[in-house]
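Hi F.,

I've been meaning to write this up properly since the lab meeting, where we talked about keeping a consistent format for the predictions we share between groups. The idea is simple: the sequence comes first, exactly as it goes in, then the structure tokens exactly as they come out, then a line or two of notes. No screenshots and no reformatting. I'm using this chain as the first example so we have something concrete to point to.
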Amino acid sequence: MAVAIAAVSFASCGNKAADAAKATADSIRIADSIAAVEAAAAEAAAQATDTTAVADSAATETVAE
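Output, unedited:
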């Protein structure tokens, strides 16, 4: 009976190092994905600001004429 309990205990604890490495890799992958999305959003916001500034200056020049 004790041998069966020991066998089940060892089986349930198996391969924790591989699971930890997989979890770390998943965390890094997710963090990289989030960083890429945030960078794309920041770039899009910067481009939108640049486009608005050009449009505003063009409108100002038209009104001034």
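Notes:
The chain has one domain: 2-64.
Residues 2-64 form one domain.

If this format works for you, I'll send the rest the same way.

G.
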